């Protein structure tokens, strides 16, 4: 899901009344059973006084409607995009009783220019009930000055070339690119870059000029290593390197003091580096389908960590320190 902060602002500004037969219905159990509530607009409960806060197990979604569900109130935290009847089962079991707010959007073509599902994570239509979900670990920014449309968001390189200094968000996923255009060095205000599902294998020297970069999503490319200048990205908060031929956690990670979300799934990493405890702001970690088989003794020092996926790893037991952490662990051993 791209540019979520933009979509949130757009949704909140465009909220309007909804006909009864177009309303969303949430249930407190999986498979559309138990108590239910009809939502005629966005849902953002205030604390535990709302009985459905963290109690939703399935959602009925009418045609022409799509939702963004969050695991925190205030449209924050991890999120999932769904556009069909959905139940928190199978790949989505971790969402059962973990939904804190919901954005209700109409006309599915208005806000999602292209499919954003993670091809390597096995998500999509699963099980019964026509589960349809696009999962992304990128946590949206809490505050921003983005305005929907014509506000620095580009999906085309040719368009970005004409106004490089106006580019704030560049999404060029799935365009079969293998080389970097030189004008990248002119995008001084670039904050979010999405280059997934291309054929990039190296980083150009001028990439070091992107000092304001906050989000870098580069899954499913051909990267194997990283230049030293990556340690200068002090504003980087979200980093997705999943699906690349990376054998170890790059050394520059320890300099990323602002990093909140890290996705290293489907890479060749086999262990945590000694400096990993220095990522003190880390909130989300995905190491699914890697060669990692154990946690280091310092892992509980990551006190802000709230979500982790260890599906398909060699981890067969959770040490007491990890089990004592207040986090959601997807794929945890029985």
UniProtKB/TrEMBL annotation:
InterPro entries from the UniProt entry: Beta/gamma_crystallin, G_crystallin-like, Leu-rich_rpt, Leu-rich_rpt_typical-subtyp, LRR_dom_sf, LRR_domain-containing
Organism of derivation: bioreactor metagenome
Record bears the keyword Repeat: yes
SMART domains (UniProt xref): LRR_TYP (SM00369), XTALbg (SM00247)
Protein name: Beta/gamma crystallin 'Greek key' domain-containing protein
One Gene Ontology cellular component: cytoplasm
Domain Beta/gamma crystallin 'Greek key': 23-105
Bias type Low complexity, positions: 116-139
Keyword Transport: no
Pfam (any one): Crystall
Keywords, comma-separated and alphabetical: Leucine-rich repeat, Repeat
Family, as annotated: Belongs to the beta/gamma-crystallin family.
Region (Disordered): 115-143
Taxonomic lineage: unclassified sequences, metagenomes, ecological metagenomes
């Amino acid at each position: 899901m791209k540019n979520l902060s933009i979509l949130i602002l757009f949704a909140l500004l465009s909220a309007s009344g909804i006909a009864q037969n177009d309303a969303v219905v949430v249930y407190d159990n999986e498979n559309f059973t138990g108590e239910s509530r009809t939502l005629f607009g966005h849902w953002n409960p205030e604390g535990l006084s709302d009985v459905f806060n963290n109690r939703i197990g399935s959602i009925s979604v009418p045609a022409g409607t799509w939702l963004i569900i969050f695991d925190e109130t205030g449209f924050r935290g991890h999120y999932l995009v769904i556009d069909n009847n959905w139940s928190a089962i199978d790949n989505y079991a971790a969402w059962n009783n973990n939904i804190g707010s919901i954005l209700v959007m109409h006309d599915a073509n208005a806000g999602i220019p292209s499919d954003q599902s993670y091809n390597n994570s096995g998500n999509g239509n699963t099980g019964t009930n026509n589960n349809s979900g696009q999962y992304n670990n990128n946590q949206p920014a809490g505050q921003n000055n983005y305005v929907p449309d014509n506000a620095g968001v580009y999906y085309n390189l040719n368009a970005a070339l004409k106004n490089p200094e106006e580019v704030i968000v560049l999404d060029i996923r799935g365009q079969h690119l293998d080389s970097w255009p030189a004008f990248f060095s002119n995008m001084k205000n670039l904050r979010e870059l999405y280059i997934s599902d291309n054929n990039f294998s190296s980083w150009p020297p001028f990439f070091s000029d992107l000092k304001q970069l906050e989000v870098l999503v580069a899954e499913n490319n051909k990267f194997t290593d990283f230049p030293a200048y990556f340690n200068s990205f002090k504003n980087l908060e979200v980093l997705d390197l999943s699906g690349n031929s990376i054998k170890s956690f790059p050394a520059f990670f320890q300099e990323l003091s602002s990093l909140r979300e890290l996705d290293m799934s489907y890479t060749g990493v086999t262990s945590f580096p000694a400096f990993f405890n220095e990522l003190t702001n880390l909130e989300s970690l995905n190491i699914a389908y890697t060669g990692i088989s154990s946690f280091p003794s310092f892992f509980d020092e990551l006190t802000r960590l709230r979500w982790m996926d260890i599906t398909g790893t060699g981890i067969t037991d959770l040490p007491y320190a990890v089990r004592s952490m207040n986090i959601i662990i997807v794929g945890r051993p029985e």
